[in-house]
Amino acid sequence: MQNLNILVLEDDPLQRLVITLALRKVMPGHVHEAGNGNEALDLLNASEKMDIAICDLKMSEMDGLAFLRQASQNGKLHSVILCSQLEPILRQAAITMIKRLGLNFLGDLGKPFSLERLITLLARHQRWRQNPFTLLTRFELPTLSDIVRGLDNGEFEPYYQPTVALADTSLLGVEALVRWNHPQLGVLPPSYFLHVMEQNSLLDRLFWPSFELGLALRHTLAQQGKPLNFSFNLHPLQLASLNLTDSIASMAALFKVPSSSLTFEINETGMASVPAISLENLVRLRVMGCGLAMDDFGAGYASLERLCEIPFSQIKLNGSFVRKMKHHPRSSAIISYTVTLARSLGMSLIIEGVETAEQRRRLQELGCHAAQGFLFARPMPEKHFTAYCTR
Description:
Strand content: 15-25%
Order of helices and strands: EHEHEHEHEHHEEEHHEHEHEHEHHEHEH
Protein name: EAL domain-containing response regulator
Number of helices: 15
Radius of gyration: 25 Å
Largest sheet: 8 strands, mixed, barrel
Domain EAL: 140-391
Structural class: alpha/beta
InterPro entries: CheY-like_superfamily (IPR011006), Cyclic-di-GMP_PDE-like (IPR050706), EAL_dom (IPR001633), EAL_sf (IPR035919), Sig_transdc_resp-reg_receiver (IPR001789)
Shape: elongated
Low-confidence stretches: 131-139
Pfam family, one: Response_reg
Domain Response regulatory: 5-126
Helix content: 40-55%
Mean pLDDT: 88
């Protein structure tokens, strides 16, 4: 383990002593101690840098929250480990605040002290230090010319992620997701290219080839006795097209795919203001028999109002609620509420982001029936998905 500069901010002398003694035993470097935020800020200002602050939040004089806010401004503090007995909802809000301050949050040490937990969190910092950039910043985002070249060369390809029944993991449907098979950088998700496409009116060039390939696959599977429901993502900007619904209907007829087997997912965060032409297209899709799913439900700010205005038939709950479920009691309450809401509105509900067997079990207890997530299957290219279906 590399030498570290660590600041322990804890107003309880015994707890502070336990942490500092443990740190000096398990890691090389320097350990600094402070009993309140003012002392901690003085130590930080006097140092060249501080790798980690192990921080209590509730204390006299300057508390941990104020210290972290001021510490984030001088750029000397890299990472934070919380050591607090605040109730879960307050601790979760503090974690969100830390991340928005631009600090690297390593985790919650909790109380009473655990040496094993401390070693785990220190190891996280070492991994972050060796690779401080996320996947999104390892290289420059693609240029417009690179994206156009990729479109011209057919490098954008639909990947398919199954939707399954939580009870027995039987296959209920599939979502088509576009990936970029970049010749140098490998398989890239939409976060690399979607923003550039939005700004340069390239969304249709992305959507229609993927839609056509998805329809062809659906037709093939139906001939094999597997008539699945296929979901496709529509960007809110595309809803303003006068030809949208006619083009969808024509292509579905060409591939002999019934409209009732198609669902179009609309991201909630892009639906703050819906123009009349977009509403017309959404109504037409429902009249045709297609499903409409509110994607990432709960991630925006006007979910319930949108449910009243737009003829959605399905809710897809944002995966953040599943990830927080174990340590954030309100997340379980929100999932339970969404189950009841969907049932009351006559909508189907899909839970996104299921990654562990424990999450699956808890979701079943809360009344959930359908889900997507890495526990069941990751998005996969067509040939892998076809093999998945035959299994």
